[in-house]
């Protein structure tokens, strides 16, 4: 399920709360759910919205995979620094810097997702 702009949509708090209830209900009852993939810009900091998603994935027992997009916008050293900052700020087992432009990191992300899909 794709939720572009979730957390950034210019909607009332009331409407966002309705979305939250609907989304959490769906994800909590989705029998074939193997993982949650959070797509976020590597240049952004981990926010309360991402923390909420991380805690929710832990609550329902579904792994969270974070695709850190736009890695091509950073130099190699900047990217490594951002990854270290993520390690310092949060505990994320599955995080992958990716670039759709250069196709960097896509194979590693796919391999991890295939592992989750194929587990029993």
Account of the protein in words:
The chain is 48% helix and 13% strand. It is of the alpha/beta class and 120 residues long. It has a single domain (34-118), classed as Rossmann fold, CATH 3.40.50. The chain has four helices and three strands; from the N terminus they run αβαβαβα. β1 (36-41), α2 and β2 (64-69) form a beta-alpha-beta unit. It has a three-stranded parallel β-sheet with strand order 1-2-3, with helices on both faces.
Please specify the SSE layout and strand pairing.
Layout: H1 13-29, E1 36-41, H2 48-60, E2 64-69, H3 76-89, E3 94-97, H4 106-118
Parallel strand pairs: 1-2, 2-3
Radius of gyration based on Cα positions: 15 Å
List low-pLDDT spans: none
Please give the largest β-sheet.
3 strands, parallel
What is the percentage of strand-forming residues?
A: 5-15%
User: What's the CATH superfamily, by name?
Assistant: P-loop containing nucleotide triphosphate hydrolases
Return the CATH architecture: 3-Layer(aba) Sandwich
Give the total of domains. Answer: 1
Helix content: 40-55%
Count of discrete alpha- or pi-helical segments spanning 4 or more residues: 4
The level 1 CATH classification is Alpha Beta
Structural class: alpha/beta
**What is the straight-line distance between the termini?**
21 Å
- In the sheet with the most strands, the strands line up as 1-2-3
Quick structural overview:
The chain has about 120 residues and is an alpha/beta fold. The protein has helices at about 15-30, 50-60, 75-90, 105-120, and strands at about 35-40, 65-70, 95.
């Amino acid at each position: 399920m794709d939720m572009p702009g979730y957390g950034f949509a210019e909607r009332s708090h009331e409407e966002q709360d309705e979305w939250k209830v609907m989304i959490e209900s769906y994800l909590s009852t989705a029998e074939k759910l193997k993982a949650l993939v959070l797509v976020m810009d590597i240049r952004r900091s981990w926010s309360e919205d991402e923390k909420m998603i991380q805690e929710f994935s832990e609550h329902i027992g579904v792994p969270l995979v974070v695709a850190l997009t736009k890695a091509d916008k950073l130099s190699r050293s900047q990217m490594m620094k951002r990854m270290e900052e993520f390690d310092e700020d949060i505990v994320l087992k599955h995080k992958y810097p990716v670039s759709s432009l250069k196709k960097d990191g896509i194979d590693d992300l796919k391999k991890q997702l295939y592992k989750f899909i194929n587990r029993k």
